[in-house]
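In this section we walk through a basic example: taking a raw amino acid sequence and producing a predicted 3D structure, encoded as discrete structure tokens. The instruction is simple. Fold the sequence below.
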Amino acid sequence: QVQLVESGGGLVQPGGSLRLSCAASGFTLGLDVYAISWFRQAPGKEREGVSCFRSSDGSTAFTDSEKGRFTMSKDNDKNTVYLQITNLNPEDTATYYCAARRDYNCLLSAAAAYNMWGQGTQVTVSS
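The resulting token sequence is shown next.
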């Protein structure tokens, strides 16, 4: 059974940086074919995909609006995927969710394509 546990959210000042963690169990990074993505949802808005990590080959994908500020990395020993966000602004305030699907393709525009979700971690950008 796949489980995803997010951590690393919090209150950050505008211009700051944050690293979110997604600890996975039930599959192995670097071996199994999974797309592991970060979605975020702000109050009153739809959930949107922001970044994706392909477990089998370590490649990443981002939505066009987040290229440059968002990076992803992994730690195979911890079976954990990270999302680093720089130059945070108040529009980044949202609950960030880690999600996984057993496929190579990311499909960041389709949250419904993901059937495994973490509980979410809150990111608040405010001075």
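Looking at the output, two observations stand out. DSSP finds no helices and eleven strands in the chain. The longest strand covers residues 18-25. In the next section we compare this with other chains.
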